[in-house]
Amino acid sequence: MPGKAQETSDPKERFSKTMWASMLAPEHLQRVEAEVIERFVPAGGYACRKGDSVDHWMGVVDGFLKMSSISPEGKTITFSCMLAGGWFGEGSLLKTECRKYDVVALRDTRVAYMPRSTFTWLLDNSIPFNRFLLQQLNERLGLFISLVEYDRMLDTDTRVARCIASMFNPYLNPGGGMQLQISQEEIGYISSVSRQRANQALQLLEKKKLLSLDYGGITILDLAGLRSFPAEDSDAISK
Fold first, then answer.
1. Fewer CB within 10 Å: C terminus or N terminus of the chain?
2. What is the Cα–Cα distance from 88 to 149, expressed in whole angstroms?
């Protein structure tokens, strides 16, 4: 379970990198600020677990989360990663079902939890919030369709490129710039490859001038190039 609820010095900080909060009417945002709680999840800890009842909509205040599941064969399958400003779990809330995945902190992370009652109240009272959710659900559907393609049809280097690019979706991860503090091991997690293989792919992408490798992270030089990086032109290292 995540750590105890914590208060920040300024509750508005929880929403500073969040796209949907800026769309709310002042009275709606005031209620949200009063009812959302924050918890600390240490690296390796669970923000939520597969099979849990879904009682909150969740967002990353600061840190890095991985949405994943374990197959019957014991293989970890990563669906998505969430950075600061990203919110998730709306589909399970809307369907009132148990959670279908684990959400694990890849580093120390502060997570915001919006109660189901607050989420439902926003749906009933805020047209901008509804519009945001429609767009977010559409973006997430597109991401998951792409992940199936990455896993089944693309070579490893292209999969790493596309998975990195997916972390810069303005709806799903709105809070980041072109610099990303992420380790090669974490890139391996989101791409379902080993750290060593992720390193080989990153070296290739740097050679192609799509990104640069920094100490403890990467800087994106050509986001469009990462999104369209083609397997057939990558002179990729074999799987």
1. C
2. 22
